[in-house]
């Protein structure tokens, strides 16, 4: 069985190859290892292989892992990448470094209010429903700037960029259209808010396309940890 270290190495090589093809520096693109549903032992194995950024989707599961690992591995950067409800914001505000799935002013306000004052502001990405699908989370393209303005007025939260999950199982033309629209929106946001530096897009199956269209953080789970049960 291929080790997590070997799978991490393979994923990094894919990112490097995609960056080269897009005439970008590989140093511009971070790998977020999506460890949801996986045991702490898998996270430790990835950590020992050099991985420091981990993504979790479920608050209760993540809280258990973070409490277990944070003292021994204080340099792990924890990213929340799942749907966030109001009743979970306090926990997320206390234990995570990043939230990728911000889509409501109310949630932004609660994260800011509940972030401990002795911690650095929590980094956030606005989730964009780039394909405007009814079944998908995220704000529409024309709502991004309004939400960004609200976030920028809060004290304990830092706007870092955009996150999206493009349409699955569509043709190349549609995939490129969505990614190009997301890239244009990211560039627009960077002009208004100079601290914006993160475009969180691309997963195991489509990271090459994402890198071509400016992704700075790819979220890879199954290609590192194997299929989820």
UniProtKB/TrEMBL annotation:
Describe the family membership recorded for this protein in Swiss-Prot or TrEMBL.
Answer: Belongs to the pyridoxal phosphate-binding protein YggS/PROSC family.
Q: List residues, modification N6-(pyridoxal phosphate)lysine.
A: 36
Q: Which Pfam families does the UniProt record give?
A: Ala_racemase_N
Q: Which InterPro entries does the UniProt record give?
A: Ala_racemase_N, PLP-binding_barrel, PyrdxlP_homeostasis
- Keyword flag Cell division: no
Superkingdom of this protein's organism: Bacteria
Q: What name does this protein carry?
A: Pyridoxal phosphate homeostasis protein
Keyword tags: Pyridoxal phosphate
Please describe what this protein does: Pyridoxal 5'-phosphate (PLP)-binding protein, which is involved in PLP homeostasis.
Q: Which PANTHER family match?
A: PROLINE SYNTHETASE CO-TRANSCRIBED BACTERIAL HOMOLOG PROTEIN (PTHR10146), PYRIDOXAL PHOSPHATE HOMEOSTASIS PROTEIN (PTHR10146:SF14)
Q: Which organism is it from?
A: Shewanella surugensis
Alanine racemase N-terminal domain location is 13-228
Query: Could you tell me which CDD domains the record lists for this protein?
Result: PLPDE_III_Yggs_like
Keyword Repeat recorded: no
User: Which intervals of the chain form a coiled coil?
Assistant: none
